Automatic annotation (TrEMBL):
InterPro entries: RecG_C_sf. It comes from the Bacteria. Pfam families: HATPase_c_4. This is Uncharacterized protein. It comes from Egibacter rhizosphaerae.
Amino acid sequence: MGRDKRDLDGFEMERLLHERSLHHAYDESPVPDASLEDLDHGILERVFPTREESDSLRVLRNSRVVAAEAPTRPTIAGLVAFGSQPDAHLPQAVIRAVVYRGSQMDGDVVDEHDLDGPGGQQVDRAVELVGRHMRRGSSKDVGREDRPQFDLGAVMEAVVNAVAHRDYAVVGSRIRLLEFDDRLEIASPGGLPNTLDVESMRYRQYTRNQLLVTFLSKLTTAQGRRYIEERGEGVERIVQRSTELSGREPEFHQDGHELRLTIWGA
């Protein structure tokens, strides 16, 4: 029986009932112990500039950076995108990054970090870490650049997808980024919805955290590129760019309540 015909499991039913009880999506929920002081107001001012300080709370409420029903409490999406340290209140809002020597997890650990901070900063740090540790193939042809092991544009798309679409209701799990000698693995907590599977996700759009996706589409990297530029095309870009470099298509696997992406190195 295909995934589109299976019954909702426990995690999905709990999430659905929670969203129905609140009449809005989960990422619009207020974070109980967080406050306005947990937001990075420098980032907010770049995204939502205001002329008067008195206007700022109204703008934050209207944009749903803070919850309408609790205007001093950031929403989950607001804290992940704009929080100085989101994991202080959302321990799951961190990327666990580990670099291994060899192709198995029993190899020596070369580097490991918990990548925290605002969502965009987590993405930047993840891409920087992959770029720092990946191999660069040498070329004997004069004037030709060395070929990198991974397409960092595709890596960025993959990490952004993980941050944007992971299930933040799964409290005990973090995004995991594992770099091996031959591949990169990115594991994102939260299964696919019952209307989607790994074969169709390349061609069909699905957004678990619509508000967070909206915020990430407004944020830009240091190079001026938006973290999310064209909705619905990220998976296709990951596949195309990675395949062009390595000659091998990335692989998506649904493993219980986790979606895992493997990008093969060149």
